[in-house]
Design brief:
It is built from three helices and no strands. It is mainly α and 78 residues long.
Length: 78
């Protein structure tokens, strides 16, 4: 499940990393009807970054992990 060694919060993100994170963020916000610039959107972003820095760098695995953690708190859009 982990694709890269652990990354520190002080390390930078490469452009491809940002593309992956933004794509996962946009998809999850749409799925859960979360508007940008809300506290829920900040929670999604923080969780994605935390998981990415822990070594989970594929978009599909990031989305599965965030869904599993947050599905009880957010209503999935119908």
């Amino acid at each position: 499940m982990l694709e890269r060694p652990n990354r520190s919060y002080v390390e930078w993100f490469y452009p491809d990393d940002l593309v992956t994170l933004k794509s996962a963020f946009d998809a999850l916000c749409a799925e859960f009807n979360i508007l940008p610039d809300t506290s829920d959107a900040q929670g999604v972003a923080a969780e994605l970054i935390r998981l990415f820095q822990a070594g989970m760098t594929r978009e599909d695995t990031l989305m599965v992990a965030v869904r599993g953690r947050w599905q009880k708190e957010w209503k999935i859009a119908c």
